[in-house]
Amino acid sequence: MDINMMMTSQLASLQQTLQMSILDKAMTTGAAGVIEMMEDIPQQQAAPASHPYKGQVIDVQV
């Protein structure tokens, strides 16, 4: 086997390993960001939300 072919094969393998490493790092960072955002969301109260217009005067014309 020619030395150039061996080096080309090793370089391709190294590039693939590096791409996978970068992808893994990006996914880990993204997941950590999502977890952080979810922790920052205020806890919702158990009480039901108020009705958007119940109890208000609505002017309807036909």
Primary descriptors:
mainly alpha, 1 helix, Motility protein, 61% helix, 62 residues, single chain
What does this molecule look like?
This protein has one helix and no strands. With 62 residues, the chain is an all-alpha fold. The longest helix has 38 residues. The mean pLDDT is 83.
Brief sketch in words of this structure:
With 62 residues, this protein is mainly alpha-helical. Helices cover 61% and strands 0% of the residues.
Strands, count: 0
- What is the radius of gyration? 29 Å
Listing every helix as H and every strand as E from the N terminus to the C terminus, the arrangement reads H
Largest sheet: none
What is the assembly state of the chains in this entry?
Answer: single chain
**Low-pLDDT segments, ≥5 res:** none
Residue-averaged pLDDT: 83
Distance between the termini: 89 Å
| Helical proportion, percent range | 55-70%
**Number of alpha- plus pi-helical segments:** 1
**Shape field:** rod-shaped
